[in-house]
Structures are given as structure tokens and as C-alpha cells.
TrEMBL record:
One of its GO terms (molecular function) is GTPase activity. CDD domains: DLP_1. Residues 575-588, 603-620 have a biased composition (Polar residues). It comes from the Eukaryota. Keywords: GTP-binding, Nucleotide-binding. Gene3D superfamilies: Dynamin, middle domain (1.20.120.1240), P-loop containing nucleotide triphosphate hydrolases (3.40.50.300). Residues 31-331 form the Dynamin-type G domain. Residues 673-769 form the GED domain. InterPro entries: Dynamin, Dynamin_GTPase, Dynamin_N, Dynamin_stalk, G_DYNAMIN_dom, GED, GED_dom, P-loop_NTPase. It comes from Dendrothele bispora (strain CBS 962.96). This is P-loop containing nucleoside triphosphate hydrolase protein. Residues 568-620 are annotated as: Disordered. GO terms for cellular component: cytoplasm; membrane; microtubule.
């Protein structure tokens, strides 16, 4: 497939070469492999003379290396001479050096100044243009010590009579006696420019064998078949008539019989020395002198391929090859540009969009972040993990409080210890029901007797001190504070995880913003936790003063527990000391019967959960509501009462029946001790339910919900979104990662280049798909 302009003609050649130049101006050479001519050669190979002969202009000629950057030369036939010099820095638009040149003799000086600017972009172009020529040479030598070569390009656009449409790049000569980094830099520059579809014009001095020519080796590396390499032999005049073997070998090379054949063949040119160049008046005179040399010098007069001698033939052949290959490669370049543009757009789509309004963007981030936190706190189906985790925490807290139940045992040290469920409901329920089990030693009748005696001060005889009851209540509350803190810490951990994960999800694009938001939210969470902890401590402090308004429930529970303890006393009591965990506090085994003292109305309080040890297999109720059920261990109590959780369910008849049952028991057997056990155990039932409800409710209200409600206004304040410097602060917070910004910039530059290339191809007449 070829372009629609595949026909000979000067106008077609010009359009194709102009198109190739335009594509290269857009930086597409490396990306798309646009065909271009490249002149390479070893240092002092005569390369600069060949370039000067082809272009018809004078270029810097110094001892040693005279080309320190790539020089792109575009030749166009015209009636009048005009030249423009510019410098192309990587990733930037070309920068013009000086005004258009109409005097050919001034080009060399301007190009020298342009090369210096390419080597050091920080130099002021205006100062370079006005500096004396000697100063420029000095600066060039000084700059060469620091930056001997550069990837920047000097571009020379030349129009004039006697020129042919041609475009090529002159590369620095390959050096050998230089630091290794310099040698590698130049070789890499040569390799980069000769890859792909470049036409390689390799300059080879005939004063050295082909095997010794590094330039040819590099060309063969990039073009093993020699299908796009043109050999240009120079300095034939330095081989005298006596160099018979060398002349014969070079003649064989030109006629295609050499050891290193090229598909495009070898050409030979003879360029003037310094003296001849100084005496010659015009480029035409120099070319005429070259023709005269080949017409009069052996063995060139005998060469069968006379079309391969002279700079004019080299120029025409290079022009033809360039035009042909540009034309052939246009469809491929078009397809490749379309493909790469699509890939570039996909890569850009993967990157986050650049932020245009920092304040609005950050406010939106804060709002969506706050909404997600509230969504988790509400416990929606799509965000239920937080509440589910906290429900487990609260359930664990309730179990911990249940384990502080008072561990009363209605037995003496000398009596057999019967295990019993520390609950009013002894029926076994499912595995998820609450278990009231306290691992502490049982508090039996002997210990209770000692406790009561130790608590007495000014009481009248036969009265139980209120302090005895309060002291026992405070004992089962000892661990409540630690259980509360454990519960609060577990909730705090779940909140911290939510904040961490949500901050990461919303602000991960902006690392500095993510760190700042994470830090200040940690401060907010700590403040809300401390506030909540203060409220919780007040609740537990209030529990240390026993009090309840559920007096009827308390009285009924006390009677029921007293009945249960008395019924347990009716079992067969052995005088053999049991193997149990009961404390060995001695107490009188026989006490005179005492009338039941008038019961005082004791204030109620919250309590910690503890309960008597029970052996494995003991049936007990595990539900928190079972505390209002009557004991069923004694058949006489099975019908004595119903659940006392609702005050209206208890009737006078029930009360009479329970009193009848109690009167049937031995009321004179350690009445004070059993009564105190029943009072404290009953108060535990009241305060347990209160604490396991109030503590989680306060944590949820003051900490969890309080934090969620304060997140948005707190972030708005801390981020300064309502301040006069909000725009500046937001821009700093939203500054994206440097690597992401660099990648986007590179992709945008590449996208622009490819779009410009496709536009050039479309303008040229090719069908282009940019979707």
C-alpha cells in the first residue's frame, strides 16, 4: 500500500519531505520511526565536508570534534538564498536563533552560536548573538569541558538556487580517545537516530580499512542486511598511484565486490582541502573540481559505475531513497499513530483527572467522606460491619458484668456444699443464653456472719447495718470500671479502623492530605472518647450509691431469692466437711431463733456480676430475663410466683402464697445471713440490667454518633475551607504525587504530538481515524 502521491515530480517530493519534517518537528521520530536521512562517521572522517558539500553552506570547521549535537538540515530550492537557524530542546518548541539569514557567509557563525546555546540552554540567546566570534569560540571550548555533547538539536532551514529538496541529520563524529561516558553517549546518539526506517549515510575515509571503521559496524548493527545504508567513501586523493592494492580494493567495494556489500551500494566523493576551499569561489566550482579529479585519476576513470562518483550523485540518490521510503511508510505511520493515540488515551483515562477547583474538590471530598462515616454509624445493609462489630463488643461487656454476680452459698463450712444455678430459672436454654458464673470463692453463711458482725457500730440489737449491704454491693462492682474501659477501648478500635480505611479510600490520591486528615481525625476521636469516658465514669460512680425506683420489683426479687436460699438449706445437711471452694471463716453453728426484724428500705445501686461456682453439667438459665423467674428446685415453690419483670403481674394473692411458703420453711436458721444474701443478690439483678443498657447506649451516643456528627465541621475548620487562604491551602493539600503528575504530563505531550501528526497526515490527503 502506498500514499496517493506515489508519482515522480518535484512538487510531490517537496510535499513528502515537508511532511516528514513536520512530523519530526512534532517529535515523532522515536515514536513512529519517520523516515529521515542520517549522516554518521568517525571523527576526522571527512563527514563535515560531505555535509557542507551536500547543503552548500559553511558549517563550523575546527580541529577535532566540530559537531557537538545533532544538526538537522532541510534544503529547499528557491530563487533567492534564505536560511533560518533554531534550537530544539527536548519537550519544548523550537527556539529561533537570530533573524533570517540572507548572507550565506554568516551561517557558520550563527550555527556555532546555536550549538553553544544547545549545549547550555541557560545562556542568553541575545548575548550569544552579540558576543564577538572569538568569545564564542572560547565559550564553546569551556562548555565542552562540562557538556561535550547534548541531545538537543540545531535546525538549519536553507532555501536557495541550485539546491535539491532534501532533509537529513548530521550527527557528531564517533570518538575514540575520550572518556568512556563521552564515547558511550555519542554511540547511543548514533544508535537512536539510525534505528527504524532511517536512511544511513555512513562516511568512510579511504585512508583506513573498512574493518576498522566503527561507524560502519554500528550501521551494520542497526541494518544487518544493508538495505537502508549508503556508504560514502572520502579522501580518495590521499591514495597515491603507488597504493595499487588499496585502490584495487576500493574499486571492488564501489563495484559491489567488496567484503561488506550494501544493498544501496557505495559512493565516492573527493572534497577540497583547506587551501583549495579557500581559493574556490563557489560550490559549483568545488563540484567541477571534483568531477575533473574523477575524470583524470586512475582507477576511477575505469569504474563501470560512474554514477556512484561525486557529491551530486550522492545527493540525488539520497533524495530519491528518502522520497521513496517516506512515501512507502506513510500508511504504516498513519496506522501506528492511530494505534498509539488510542493507547495513550487509555493510559490517560486510568489516571485521576487533574483538579481544576481545589476548594470545591476538597469540600466534596470532605462531604462524601463524612457521609460514608455516617452511613457506617447508621448501620445500613451495605455498611453494617461497624455496628455488627460493636454489637459483639457490647455482648461481651454484658457477659463480663454477668460474671461479677455475687457468689453466695447458703451453707456452713461444716455442711455439704450443693451446687446450684445462680439464677432464678434453672431450666437449660439454648447455647447463646447468658450464664451468671463467678470464679471467685463462694461467700457462705460463715463469711456472711463475720461480715455482718464486722459492720456493726451503733445499731440496735438484731438490726443488720446498711453498710453491710452497701459493702457487699461495692464488692461486686469492683471490676465494673475495668470492664467498661475494655468495652470502650474495643469500640474505639473499631472506630479507628473505620477512620483509617475510609481515609485511605477517599484521600489516597493525595498523600500529604491523607496523612493530615488521618492525624486530625485521630485527635478528634481521642477527644470524643475522653468526653464519653467521663460520662461513663459518672454513671459507674452513681452506681456506688445503691438506689432504685423499682421498689416493688426489688422486694419481690428479695423474697424470691430468700425463698430459694432457704429451700437450699432444707436439703440433707451432712456434718462432714465438703471438698469445695468455700472460705473457712468460722461462725457459730447454732444460733438462737430470732424473730424476723422489720425490713428497712435500702437504696439500690448498680453492681458487678459474680455468682457461686457451679459444677459442670449444672442446669442454669443463661438469659438476662431469667433473673425474674422463681426457683424451681423446691416443688413447694414451683407455683409460688410468676416473673416479676412487670410490676402489674404481681398480685396480693401471689404475695400471700409466697409468704405462706416462706413461713413453712425454717425461718430461724441464719435468718439475717440469708436475708442479706437475698437483698444483695436481688439488687444485682436490678443494677445489672441498668448498667448493661446504659453503658453501651452512652458509648453509642457520646462517642460513635457524636464523632460521626462532628467529622464534617471539624474537617472544614481544620482544613481552613472557610478562610481567606482556602484556595492556597487546598492547592497545597491536593498537590498530587510527582510521579503521577509527570506521567500525565508525558502522556498529554505524547497525545498532542500524535494528534498533530495525524492532523498533518489528514492535511496531506490521507484517511485518518482519530476515534
Amino acid at each position: 500500500m502506498s500514499s496517493p502521491f506515489s508519482f515522480p515530480g518535484a512538487s510531490c517530493q517537496k510535499r513528502l519531505l515537508d511532511l516528514a519534517d513536520s512530523l519530526q518537528d512534532h517529535g515523532s521520530q522515536r515514536e513512529l520511526g519517520v523516515t529521515q536521512g542520517v549522516v554518521i562517521g568517525n571523527q576526522s572522517s571527512g563527514k563535515s565536508s560531505v555535509v557542507e558539500a551536500i547543503s552548500g553552506i559553511g558549517l563550523p570547521q575546527d580541529t577535532g570534534t566540530c559537531t557537538r549535537c545533532s544538526t538537522r538540515i532541510r534544503l529547499t530550492p528557491a530563487e533567492r538564498f534564505l536560511a533560518r537557524v533554531s534550537v530544539h530542546h527536548a519537550g519544548a518548541k523550537p527556539r529561533r536563533v537570530g533573524d533570517p539569514i540572507t548572507d550565506k557567509s554568516k551561517i557558520e557563525d550563527v550555527v556555532r552560536r546555536a550549538q553553544l546555546e544547545a549545549l547550555n540552554p541557560e545562556l542568553d540567546v541575545d548575548e550569544l548573538l552579540t558576543a564577538p566570534a572569538e568569545k564564542i569560540k572560547e565559550l564553546t571550548l569551556e562548555q565542552a569541558q562540562h557538556t561535550p555533547f547534548t541531545q538537543n538539536t540545531v535546525s538549519v532551514m536553507v532555501e536557495g538556487p541550485g539546491l535539491i529538496d532534501l532533509s537529513f541529520v548530521d550527527l557528531p563524529g564517533l570518538v575514540q580517545n575520550a572518556p568512556s561516558n563521552v564515547v558511550s553517549f555519542v554511540e547511543k546518539m548514533v544508535v537512536d537516530h539510525t534505528q527504524g526506517n532511517a536512511i544511513i549515510l555512513v562516511v568512510l575515509p579511504m585512508t583506513d580499512d573498512l574493518e576498522n571503521q566503527k561507524a560502519l559496524r554500528l550501521a551494520r548493527t542497526e541494518d544487518p542486511q544493508g538495505s537502508r545504508t549508503i556508504g560514502v567513501l572520502t579522501k580518495p586523493d590521499l591514495l597515491g598511484p603507488g597504493s595499487i592494492t588499496a585502490l584495487a580494493n576500493w574499486k571492488d567495494v564501489l563495484e559491489g565486490r567488496g567484503r561488506h556489500p550494501l544493498e544501496l551500494g557505495y559512493f565516492c566523493t573527493r572534497q577540497p582541502d583547506d587551501a583549495e576551499r579557500a581559493s574556490a569561489t563557489t560550490p559549483a566550482q568545488i563540484r567541477e573540481n571534483e568531477k575533473a579529479f574523477f575524470r583524470s585519476t586512475q582507477p576511477w576513470t575505469e569504474l563501470t559505475r560512474q554514477g556512484q562518483l561525486g557529491i551530486e550523485n550522492i545527493t540525488l540518490f539520497l533524495n530519491a531513497q528518502l522520497v521513496k521510503r517516506i512515501d512507502e511508510n506513510l500508511p504504516r505511520i498513519t496506522q501506528e499513530a492511530e494505534k498509539r493515540l488510542r493507547e495513550c488515551k487509555k493510559e490517560l483515562d486510568k489516571l485521576p483527572k487533574p483538579i481544576e477547583e481545589p476548594v470545591a474538590h476538597l469540600l466534596n471530598l470532605v462531604t462524601t467522606f463524612s457521609d460514608e462515616i455516617k452511613l457506617h454509624v447508621r448501620g445500613n445493609l451495605e455498611a453494617a460491619s461497624l455496628i455488627q462489630t460493636q454489637n459483639e463488643v457490647y455482648q461481651h461487656f454484658m457477659c463480663n458484668i454477668a460474671r461479677t454476680v455475687p457468689n453466695f452459698a447458703p451453707y456452713l463450712d461444716t455442711e455439704r456444699y450443693y451446687d446450684f444455678a445462680n439464677s432464678l430459672d434453672q431450666e437449660k436454654e439454648d447455647e447463646d443464653t447468658l450464664v451468671f458464673v463467678n470464679s471467685k470463692n463462694a461467700f457462705n453463711i460463715d463469711r456472711m456472719s463475720s461480715w455482718i458482725e464486722q459492720s456493726k457500730t451503733r445499731e440496735l440489737p438484731r438490726y443488720i447495718p446498711f453498710e453491710a449491704v452497701v459493702g457487699l454491693i461495692l464488692q461486686f462492682q469492683e471490676d465494673w470500671d475495668s470492664h467498661m474501659l475494655e468495652c470502650l477501648q474495643a469500640v474505639d478500635d473499631s472506630i479507628q479502623k473505620l477512620l483509617h480505611d475510609t481515609v485511605k479510600g477517599h484521600f489516597s490520591r493525595h498523600e500529604s492530605l491523607k496523612r493530615f486528615v488521618g492525624s486530625i481525625l485521630g485527635d478528634l476521636a481521642e477527644r470524643k472518647r475522653n468526653e464519653c469516658q467521663s460520662h461513663l465514669k459518672l454513671v459507674l460512680k452513681s452506681e456506688k450509691t445503691p438506689r432504685t425506683l423499682h421498689q416493688r420489683d426489688y422486694q419481690e426479687l428479695t423474697k424470691t431469692w430468700e425463698a430459694k436460699f432457704r429451700s437450699l438449706r432444707q436439703r440433707d445437711q451432712s456434718t462432714v466437711r465438703p471438698q469445695s471452694t468455700l472460705a473457712s471463716t468460722p461462725s457459730p453453728s447454732h444460733r438462737p431463733a430470732k424473730p424476723l426484724p422489720k425490713r428497712r428500705e435500702a437504696p439500690t445501686s448498680s453492681f458487678t456480676q459474680s455468682q457461686p461456682l457451679a459444677p459442670e453439667g449444672t442446669s442454669r438459665s443463661n438469659t438476662p430475663f431469667s433473673i425474674f423467674n422463681f426457683a424451681r428446685s423446691n416443688p413447694n415453690l414451683a407455683h409460688a410466683s410468676q416473673s416479676s419483670s412487670a410490676e402489674s403481674s404481681w398480685t396480693q394473692k401471689d404475695d400471700d402464697e409466697l409468704n405462706a411458703v416462706l413461713s413453712g420453711l425454717n425461718t430461724n436458721d441464719y435468718e439475717d445471713e440469708l436475708r442479706t444474701m437475698a437483698e444483695v443478690r436481688s439488687y444485682f439483678e436490678i443494677s445489672f440490667k441498668r448498667v448493661v443498657d446504659v453503658i453501651p447506649s452512652l458509648i453509642d451516643l457520646c462517642f460513635v454518633k457524636g464523632l460521626a456528627e462532628e467529622v464534617q465541621p471539624y474537617l472544614v475548620m481544620k482544613l481552613g475551607l472557610c478562610t481567606t487562604s482556602a484556595s492556597e491551602k487546598c492547592a497545597k493539600f491536593l498537590a498530587e504525587d510527582a510521579s503521577v503528575a509527570a506521567k500525565r504530563e508525558a502522556l498529554m505531550s505524547r497525545k498532542t504530538m500524535l494528534q498533530n501528526v495525524l492532523q498533518e497526515l489528514r492535511d496531506f490527503g490521507l484517511q485518518v481515524d482519530t476515534d
